[in-house]
Amino acid sequence: MENITIQTIISIVAACISLIAVIVSIYYNHKNNKQYLKSLEPLLSFKLFELKSELYLRITNTGKSAANDITIEIKKIENNGDRNELNLDELFDKEFELYPGESTQGRIAFWGETVCSSAFPKIDINVQYKKGVTGKLVNMERTVIFSPSYDNKIYGDFNIDLRELNKNMNVMAKANLRTANYLDGCQVAPFDELNILAHRSLHDDMQSLKDGENASTIMERTDVIKNRI
Prior knowledge:
Elements: H1 2-39, E1 44-51, E2 54-61, E3 67-78, E4 96-98, E5 103-110, E6 122-131, E7 137-145, H2 162-184, H3 202-211, H4 221-228
């Protein structure tokens, strides 16, 4: 009887442990599934920038699912110099949708910076949209601050042949060396890596000719190297 009772207790404990393990497994599966669905939600980012004396608001969906029925209400604009009135584009009068990676933009006002006043505007907006995965309606308020347009890097393909550039640089270097040899009276080759200081100048040579002194002879390359060493 005692053996049966002990076996029964062990079975009950094992069943309880199994039940707890199942409950924990279900809980974490639900939690992971919820986190996964959350990672798929749309995520709207906003940028306020100036282009050709007009202020634009750019909206980008940086999430992983679509944002549907987006409406944006521009409440007010501040710190825009003397032009703190809105001049909205038609984009903000209707609903639109953005899929992952897509963006759109619309004018909200004219640039207010002048010679007499500076501008670093900010706007208050109300945003409403539906999540593409769950269809849940999202409402939020944001303050978007002006972002200077020069923070964007500009890339271009100019198709430059660097070999031709190196060739032209070598030609210019040799021309400069010939001029230096002529003025200083030395004979240094382009491949010589000698930091030679000039001991003469054009002014001194012209003064010598004026005074009737004999002009010095041109130093050979070997003499230049010996003097340098």
